[in-house]
Amino acid sequence: MTLPKITYGLDIWYTPPNKKPGQTKSSGSAGALRQFQKAQRIASLAIRGALRSTPNDFADAHAGLLSMEYALLKATHRATIRMLTLPDTHPLHPIIEQTRNSPPKKHPSPIANLLRTFKLRKKKLEIIMPVAQCPPRPAKLNTKIASSREESIKQEKDDKANFKVFSDGSGLNNDIGAAAILYKKGRFTPLDRLKVFLGPSSKHNTFEAEAIGAVLAPTLLSSCPDTIGKKVSLYIDNQALIKSFNNPKATSGQYLIRHFLLLANALGCNLEVRWISGHSKVRGNEKVDELAKEAANGLSSEAVKLPHILRDPLPLSASATKQAFHRRLKNKWEESWEDSERGKHFDAIDEDFPFTGFRKRTNSLTRAQASLMVQIRSGHIPLNCYLFKINRADTELCQACLDREDGQHCRETIKHFLFECNTYDVEREKLIADISRSHLNLKDIMSDTDRMKALAHFINKTGRFKNP
C-alpha cells in the first residue's frame, strides 16, 4: 500500500543511480534512493520483528520486499513501458516519439533518461487504447463458460455443432507458440490446422499466445466455405480470454482481442466461443496442445496461410517485457546476496533466497515465535556475545555457565545457547525428543514448522528472554 504512494510520479523526478567506470560518485538520484531505503528499513524490521541493527539486505529478503534499489527500477520501468504503449491521440505521444527519434545530447529530459537507462528507445511495443467502462456495451459474441471442469467436458461431448475449432497457446523452453485446429462433425481427422511461433518469453507471453490461437480460429473458418451458415463452436481453455471478448480492458494483448473480434464478426457462420478445461483428454484440445508445443519449438505454418497480422513480427508485449525485466531484477538481487559475505555464511542455514519457504512456514507461528526465529537466523539476538559486540553488555560470556559450580567460561553464542549450554540440558532433552537428535541443527530446524515451534518452546522454558 505504501510503496505505490511514495513512488507516485517517480518517472518524472527520479533518475536511477549509475556509477560510470573511473568515477567515485554515482550520478542520478542517489540521495533519494538512500531516503527510500531508510523508509523501507523501518517497514522490514516491523514486518519481521527483527532488532534495529539487522542488516538491510537480510531484513528485506525475510520480509519478502524487493531491495529498494531494484523496487524503484521496477517502478520506473513500468512507467516507461506505460508511456511507450500510449496511442497517438495522447498528449504525451508526440513528446515521447520526438525523444525516441532525436534524443537530446545535453540536458536530457526525464523521458530521455528512462529510455536510455532501460534501452527502450528502439523497441516497438504494442499500443493499448483506453476503454470506456460506462455504459456497458451489449455482448456481440456468443460465449459460454461451464461451471466446472467436468461440466465443460460434458458440454463438449454433447455439442451438436457442425464444426468445432480448438485453439491454444503454449510456452516451452522460454519460447512461445500458438495453434488452432478445425474438425467437422462426424470426422475423426481434422480438416485443417495452423500454428505460429511467436518468439521468446521475454517478448511475448502465454496469454498473448492464447489470443493468437483465437485469431487463427476464424482464419481457419474463413478458408472453409462449408462453414457458412453452419453452427461452429470455438473451444478455448482460458476463461480470462473468453471473458475479455465481450468486456475488453485496457491491458496487454488488447489489439489481438480486437483483431479476433473483427475477424469473428466477419464470418458467415454462427460462432459460439466455449471454455474447455485444459488437459481434459478431449481429442481436439489434446491435439491443439501438441500443435502449440510444436509451434513453441519454432515450427510455423506457411506465411501465406496465416492472417496478415502474423506475417510480420508482432510488437513486443508490454506485459511480457515487464515480466522479463522483473525476472532480471530478481536474478540481480539474488546474485548480489550470493556474492556478499553474509550470503555465503548464511548458506549453512538456508540456501533458498529470498526465503519464500521460510516465510510460508512462519505463517503458522505466533508473532513472537516468528520474530524469535528471524533473530536467530540473523545472529542479531539479545545474547551476551552479540550484546557485547554492540556495547550493550559488559561480557560476552554465558552467565548461566559461570553460575555453575564448575565455573566454565563459554561465550554465549547462538550455538552455545541452543545446543551446548549444560544449564539447559533438561529443557534440551525435551527438544531432542520432539525433533530427534539428527535434526539438532539450525538448517534442519528452520526447514520445518513443527521444529521451529519446538525450538521456540525450548527457549521459552529456559527463561533466557523475557518475551520469547
Computed CA radius of gyration, to the nearest angstrom = 30 Å
Coarse shape: globular
> What is the helix content?
40-55%
SSE order, one letter for each helix or strand: HHHHHHHEHEEEHEHHEHHHHHHHHHHH
- Main beta-sheet strand count, sense and barrel state: 6 strands, mixed
At the third CATH level, what is the topology name of the largest domain?
Nucleotidyltransferase, domain 5
CATH superfamily of the largest domain: Ribonuclease H-like superfamily/Ribonuclease H
Number of domains: 3
Output the strand order for the largest sheet.
Answer: 1-6-5-2-3-4
At the first level of CATH, the class of the largest domain is Alpha Beta
Distance between the termini: 30 Å
| Low-pLDDT sequence parts | none
User: How much of the polypeptide forms β-strand, as a percent range?
Assistant: 5-15%
How many strands appear in the DSSP assignment?
A: 6
Average of pLDDT: 91
Please provide a brief summary of the model.
The protein has 22 helices and six strands.
Descriptors:
single chain, 468 residues, alpha/beta, 3 domains, 22 helices, 6 strands
Describe this structure in words.
Strands 1-6-5-2-3-4 form a 6-stranded mixed beta sheet, sandwiched between helices. The longest helix has 22 residues, at 318-339. Helix 5 (68-84) packs antiparallel against helix 13, helix 9 (206-222) packs parallel to helix 11 and helix 20 runs antiparallel to helix 22. The chain has helices spanning 2-6, 10-13, 30-48, 56-63, 68-84, 93-101, 110-117, 149-158, 206-222, 239-246, 254-265, 283-296, 318-339, 341-346, 356-362, 367-378, 384-389, 399-402, 414-420, 425-435, 442-446, 449-462, and strands at 142-144, 163-172, 175-184, 192-200, 231-236, 270-275. 48% of the residues lie in helices and 9% in strands. The model has no long low-confidence stretch (mean pLDDT 91). The chain is built from 22 helices and 6 strands. The protein starts with a helix and ends in a 6-residue tail after the last helix. The protein has 3 domains: 2-117, no CATH class; 142-313, Nucleotidyltransferase, domain 5, CATH 3.30.420.10; 355-462, no CATH class. It is an alpha/beta fold.
